[in-house]
Specification:
mainly alpha
Length: about 90
């Protein structure tokens, strides 16, 4: 398990929100990439939680924008929204 201090955890979440890869994040916060990836894939720890909070936070913002564009008639945005609905329905 990767042990991160409070600052590294904050940076992990921030860098994940900026959509850096796990390898890039590992370099930036100075930890072993394989260990970080293993912790994130396991998913039941604070490291994974910080990573996904950052990543999903950005996804929320992006999807809000896409939905707004779809409501204004953007065909590309409408395609994305249709795909999101399909993913959501398949996951229910």
């Amino acid at each position: 398990m990767t042990i991160l201090d409070e600052n590294q955890m904050k940076l992990l979440e921030e860098y994940a929100s900026l959509l850096f890869t796990i390898d890039e994040i590992a370099i930036l916060i100075k930890v072993d990439p394989a260990s970080l990836r293993r912790d994130i894939r396991h998913g039941k720890n604070k490291v994974a939680e910080a990573y996904f909070q950052g990543k999903l936070g950005t996804m929320v913002a992006v999807r809000k924008n896409i939905i707004q564009f779809a409501k204004k008639g953007s065909p590309q945005a409408e395609t994305f929204v249709k795909d999101y609905l399909e993913q959501q329905n398949n996951n229910e």
